[in-house]
Write a structure and sequence with these properties.
The chain is an alpha+beta fold and 382 residues long. The protein has 3 domains: 147 residues, BirA Bifunctional Protein, domain 2, CATH 3.30.930; 77 residues, no CATH class; 146 residues, no CATH class. 41% of the residues lie in helices and 19% in strands. Helix 1 crosses helix 2. The longest helix has 22 residues. The termini are far apart.
Length: 382
């Protein structure tokens, strides 16, 4: 459940808003209040708050909201019970005045509350320190007791779904325009930020079904890329697209591995070959993958796709480009990548990346220099 809580000095407008919500609000619970109108209830709360003049921000206001597919299944009484139990955990007692209202005008059904921190005896029972965090912890505790997903658990699920869709889009597309279009097909909106120095410098992803147009001016929807994954950076995505472009250009007019390699080197990229099994001199060795890296690259740490000292796996960054490996084993390269059908795989990018990392522990890589040396030795033996 998403939630918010803050302490502040309020006017009668706060209670009027809670009790209206475009005519859809329903007061589900109240405590220590005689009046049935927001204006009358505010007057009662204000009178009690003046019993403790040391507390200026005498009101606690906030909301609790569930995703639509869960919130609509909860009865109003259940919503009210969750709210009152969470408020109880942060100091609200049966001597505190409060009002709870169910709101239905927005996409997500939610409950708003206005609480007087000063109880009827003049004591401030709700501490303001870290109130937002403490209330959030209280809501999560109540949700777990009732077997409901918390906002953190829901966020983890959403981020995992976003990361899976994003990495699939990166593999299938060649630029940010294509990525945005592909993500839209998957039900996500991608927002890019940029600056003069770096160009595209940031990314935020939103689930289309979770966009709430009534609240987007108040709450920033979706997640930044850094919140979705601490491994995948915007700079790495840019490198992947740059690598794809270089490979496609390098394979034009190249009918063998040597020419393909030379073309990439002219563009400033190094190539390492990963053979299947142990490399054996003087024999035909089957290529398993190609690892490509930009010469003098500033990227030194492992990323989601990038592996330190090796670069980018051709088969990991693009399943279509990965088909080149098969063609290289046959001794030729087709001039048009687009004529190849994309290979289907049931493996997730995380599983692929993990498997490739495991391969690094037992490498079977041969640099170009070593490759050329073995060729010279074979010629001398003839």
């Amino acid at each position: 459940m998403n939630n918010s809580a803050t302490t502040r000095a309020i006017s009668k407008i706060a209670l009027e808003y809670n009790g209206n919500d475009k005519g859809t609000a329903e007061m589900i619970s109240s405590n220590c209040l005689l009046s049935s109108t927001p204006e009358g209830q505010y007057s009662e709360m204000k009178t009690v708050s003046e019993r403790n003049p040391n507390v200026k921000k005498w009101a606690l206001t906030g909301y609790i909201s569930q995703p639509d597919e869960i919130g609509r299944k909860l009865k109003d009484e259940e919503f009210a019970e969750i709210a009152t139990k969470a408020l109880d955990k942060i100091g609200v007692t049966n001597k505190n005045q409060y009002r709870l209202d169910i709101h239905n005008s927005t996409k997500h059904k939610h409950i708003h509350f206005v609480v007087n921190r000063i109880d009827i005896s003049g004591k401030c029972t709700v501490k303001s320190h870290d109130i937002g965090k403490r209330f959030g912890d209280a809501v999560r505790e109540v949700c777990k007791e009732r077997g409901l997903l918390t906002d953190i658990e829901i966020g983890i699920q959403k981020k995992a779904e976003m990361l899976k869709s994003l990495t699939e889009a990166i593999r299938s597309e060649n630029n940010f325009d294509g990525l945005i279009s592909e993500m839209k097909k998957k039900g996500f909106e991608v927002q890019l930020s940029s600056n003069v120095k770096d160009g595209i410098s940031g990314m935020r992803i939103l689930m289309e079904k979770n966009k709430n147009f009534q609240t987007e001016r108040i709450y920033k929807a979706g997640y930044k890329l850094s919140e979705i994954s601490n491994q995948l950076k915007i700079s790495e995505i840019k490198s992947v697209f740059e690598m794809k472009k270089a490979v496609r250009e390098a394979q034009k007019n190249a009918d063998n591995l040597k020419v393909f390699r030379e073309n990439l080197q002219q563009k400033g990229f190094s190539v390492k070959i990963q053979y299947k099994g142990e490399y054996k001199a003087g024999q035909k060795n089957e290529i398993q993958d190609l690892w490509i890296n930009k010469v003098n690259s500033s990227q030194e740490k492992n990323g989601f796709f990038f592996r330190k000292n090796f670069g980018f796996s051709l088969s990991a960054i693009d399943s279509d480009l990965g088909n080149l490996v098969k063609l290289l084993n046959q001794g030729n390269i087709n001039n048009e990548v687009s004529t190849h059908s994309k290979s289907e795989t049931n493996e997730s990018l995380i599983e692929i990346a993990g498997g490739l990392l495991g391969d690094l522990l037992n490498p079977t890589y041969v640099s170009q220099e070593e490759d050329e040396l073995w060729k010279k030795k074979r010629k001398l033996r003839r």
